[in-house]
TrEMBL record:
<keyword id="KW-0808">Transferase</keyword>
<protein>
    <submittedName>
        <fullName>Glycosyltransferase family 4 protein</fullName>
        <ecNumber>2.4.-.-</ecNumber>
    </submittedName>
</protein>
<keyword id="KW-0328">Glycosyltransferase</keyword>
<dbReference type="Pfam" id="PF13692">
    <property type="entry name" value="Glyco_trans_1_4"/>
</dbReference>
<dbReference type="GO" id="GO:0016757">
    <property type="term" value="F:glycosyltransferase activity"/>
</dbReference>
Length: 389
């Protein structure tokens, strides 16, 4: 069987949440025996090494340019989608059993005459209307705030257009899936957890007193999370012997001057590290102090896979299915957040038990391959029944 995967960003290296999810799914589809062709409409072409890594799993790749123009701001379609308008014209030669859209940004592909709408499956990485509204709350830049609000309104309208053309949805967030299913019971929708493989589970030694945060440093909601921690939690943590706050992520060469207003004593910053392995290994626990966001925060799941128990705000763990005080610790007030870090610092056995419980949950409930296989099989059964009737 053949599947066309359409991406708004090249999926490799898997160095942020969206790529982690997309790249993992491409590998799962290949393991299931699917013949995969990939279309990418983004700003940058991959290096030869990155392209070769992907070609080990796909039969063919095509690229089209993302063209952002100021005039796109005036269009009814969100700029993130309108700038990928070349997808309407990309040459598609083969017929596919399914076309997998990796997010709303690639909406223009639905206007390509070679795409059959009854073959389309949408992977919902975020409720983009909610996500961009959250970005507007996170940023302090007035122009950015206006842009995010405009995109939020446009995505709300786009989601209605999408429903007219697409009836198959795979949600990364259990919370967003349940909401969508209530309002659209006739759609063939399902919660598909992010890809998790057995060989990625690790465990901390719980020796160092390092608190870790990993996330894209150019995103306003991640910046806001770090700033909240530095303002409210970090000063209290400085009393702890051997404590360090480890921050890592891709800045996309943007200035990190927004950090300078805080006390950076015992803060270690890794800007665009080539590998996160040693950073995870050095950690005692992971914090996700997100104040605004939507969808599943894959940083929470990745931290658990990589051997760190997680303390999070309510926003930072929503949609994961994890349970407070059983798989994860949740706190929204600074004094409670600090208290839970202190609790795990003082009790390594409790930290280890929390990690093991969360890893057991993910192993059981995040079987991406089986859920995806079952979903596609159910679609094939439905299709065969229609043919018989």
């Amino acid at each position: 069987m053949k599947i066309l995967v359409v991406c708004s960003d090249f999926p490799f290296p898997a160095d942020h949440g969206g790529r982690v999810d997309t790249w993992g799914r491409i590998k799962v589809l290949a393991e299931l025996g699917w013949k995969i062709q990939l279309i990418v409409c983004g700003k940058q072409r991959p290096s030869e090494a990155d392209a070769n890594a992907v070609m080990a799993y796909v039969e063919e790749m095509k690229f089209c340019d993302r063209r952002s123009r100021l005039a796109d701001l005036l269009h009814a379609i969100p700029m993130q989608a309108q700038s990928r308008n070349e997808l309407k014209h990309v040459d598609i030669k083969d017929d596919y059993d399914y076309v997998l859209l990796e997010g709303d940004y690639v909406y223009p592909i639905l206007s390509n005459p070679k795409i059959r709408h009854d073959s389309v499956i949408l992977r919902v990485h975020n409720d983009e209307a909610v996500y961009f509204k959250a970005l507007a709350r996170s940023t302090k830049n007035v122009i950015h705030k206006m842009y995010y609000r405009m995109e939020s309104s446009k995505f709300a309208r786009l989601q209605k257009k999408m429903l007219e053309k697409v009836d198959k949805y795979l949600f990364i967030s259990n919370k967003e899936f349940e909401s969508f299913q209530r309002h659209n019971p006739s759609a063939k929708s399902l919660f598909l957890p992010p890809p998790v493989t057995e060989d990625t589970f690790r465990s901390s030694t719980f020796q160092s007193k390092h608190v870790v945060f990993i996330g894209s440093l150019f995103m306003p909601n991640n910046r806001e999370a770090i700033q909240w921690y530095l303002a409210h939690i970090h000063p209290l943590m400085l009393k702890e012997p051997d404590y360090k706050f480890i921050v890592a992520g891709n800045s996309r060469n943007q200035s990190l001057s927004w950090l300078e207003q805080y006390d950076l004593t015992n803060v270690i910053l890794h800007d665009t590290p080539k590998s996160l392995d040693d950073i995870y290994k050095s950690g005692y626990l992971f914090v996700n102090p997100m104040q605004n966001g939507a969808g599943v925060k894959l940083k929470t799941i990745e931290a658990i896979q990589n051997g760190l128990p997680v303390i999070s705000t309510s926003i930072g763990y929503e949609g994961t299915g994890l349970i407070d005080n059983e798989h994860i610790m949740v706190a929204d007030k600074p004094e409670e957040f600090y208290g839970k870090i202190k609790l795990l610092f003082d009790n390594p056995q409790a930290a280890k038990a929390l990690l093991e419980s969360s890893q057991t949950y993910i192993r059981k409930h995040y079987n991406h391959k089986e859920v995806l296989k079952g979903y596609i099989n159910s679609l094939n059964t439905s299709y065969q029944m229609k043919q018989v009737l």
